[in-house]
Design a protein that fits this description.
The protein is α+β, with helices and mostly antiparallel strands. The chain has helices at about 90-100, 110-130, 150-160, 220-225, 255-260, 290-300, 305-310; strands at about 5-15, 20-25, 30-35, 40, 45, 50-60, 65-75, 85-90, 160-165, 170, 175, 210-215, 230-235, 240-245, 250-255, 270-275, 275-280, 290, 320, 330. The strands form 5 sheets. The protein has a 9-stranded mixed beta sheet. A 3-stranded antiparallel beta sheet has the order 10-9-19.
Length: about 350
């Protein structure tokens, strides 16, 4: 049987400071490294690279920060002077870290099973495509051993090897915090994944992010968007705004409005009131895939993580148990990822 592969979760550390210091400590050794230009020093001696064998707990410190990881560590400097610190970690160890960063209730054991399957699926997908892990509430973050929780570790063991597939291909397990009552159809926003179908979500109303409102003055709106009016122009069948019109019928991208006005979602209705705008909204996130607050309610009231998968992916996705994994791949860590919440980078 093919041996378990491992994932290289790499983080590139950029700095204009000279020197840059890195230390590594696994309890048995404590090494300090210095980067000057395109050279790496240990104890005043120039070295090509350093690699620490696989460890259950290793502390890596740099730029005034430190984190604990499982796995091996490789440190090197590129010809252009870029410091590279690579954490090579087994798949199941990476899952333990990633699953707890998915939002909503890390004390719900059944929900954590779902999160472990989603985390494992995404890591497997990224290993095959060598893509970034997007850094947002719609996607995943790898934090090493720092992010692990005992209940999450147990849940990941319960689901060992389980991933989500369609037609024997690994899917991208999109999710969001709250659907506002209806999920988004992928085809409606140019997201070409057939399992992203619009679902009426009757459980969303039990989530704390189900409804909200935001009041903004016309003056504040003008400072942010150079317009005193804002009217939805293009809307998806689910009701999410894709574009707006402003003063002089200027078209404004909905993602720009969402970002600058800090809107939880684009499932909104706008009411003009004197010199203010009142924005009434539902949900939080892109609306693609699984609504995590709904999943929390479902699994807290007798339904299983498998029931959640069937509902939000329209019965089009299979839960598959794999016993062997891909060979080693390099995946940059999340903070250098592209914008999340769209399909642009898949």
């Amino acid at each position: 049987m093919k041996r378990f592969g491992a994932f290289l979760l790499a983080f590139k550390l950029f700095s204009n400071l000279n020197p840059t210091w890195v230390y590594v400590d696994n309890g048995n050794i404590h090494y300090l490294f210095e980067k000057r230009g395109n050279k790496l020093f240990q104890g005043g001696i120039v070295i090509k690279s350093y690699e620490l064998p696989y460890s259950d707990s290793v502390v890596i410190g740099t730029e005034g920060r430190e984190h604990t990881y499982r796995g091996s560590v490789l440190i090197r400097v590129t010809r252009t002077g870029e410091l590279i610190v690579i954490n090579r970690v087994k798949l199941e160890d990476a899952v333990k870290s990633v699953l707890t960063t998915i939002p909503v209730n890390n004390k719900n054991g059944e929900l954590l099973k779902l999160k472990s399957v989603m985390a494992r699926t995404m890591l497997m997908y990224l290993a095959r495509t060598k893509r970034y892990i997007p850094d947002s509430t719609d996607f995943f973050v790898y934090t090493g051993r720092d992010g692990e929780k005992p209940l999450g570790n147990f849940a990941s063991k319960f689901t060992t090897g389980e991933i989500l597939t369609q037609n024997d291909s690994i899917i991208v397990p999109f999710y969001h915090t709250n659907s506002g009552g209806v999920t988004e159809g992928g085809s409606d926003i140019g997201c070409p994944f057939g399992y992203l179908v619009p679902i009426i979500d009757t459980f969303a109303k039990y989530g704390k992010s189900f409804s909200w409102e935001k009041i903004i003055t016309e003056d504040s709106l003008y400072k942010l968007l150079r317009t005193r009016t804002l009217t939805p122009l293009e809307v998806t069948p689910s009701g999410r705004v894709r574009s707006f019109t402003g003063d002089n019928d200027v078209t404004i991208d909905a993602d720009t409005v969402k970002k600058l006005l800090s809107l939880p979602s684009l499932l909104i209705y706008i009411e003009n009131n004197a010199d203010t705008l009142i924005i009434y909204g539902r949900g939080k996130g892109s609306g693609l895939g699984i609504s995590m607050e709904s999943a929390d309610y479902m699994t807290s009231h007798g339904l299983s993580y498998i029931d959640v998968i069937k509902l939000f992916y329209g019965g089009l996705v299979n839960l598959t148990r794999r016993q062997s994994y891909e060979e080693l791949y390099r995946i940059p860590v999340v903070q250098y990822a592209q914008k999340a919440g769209t399909c642009a980078h898949y």
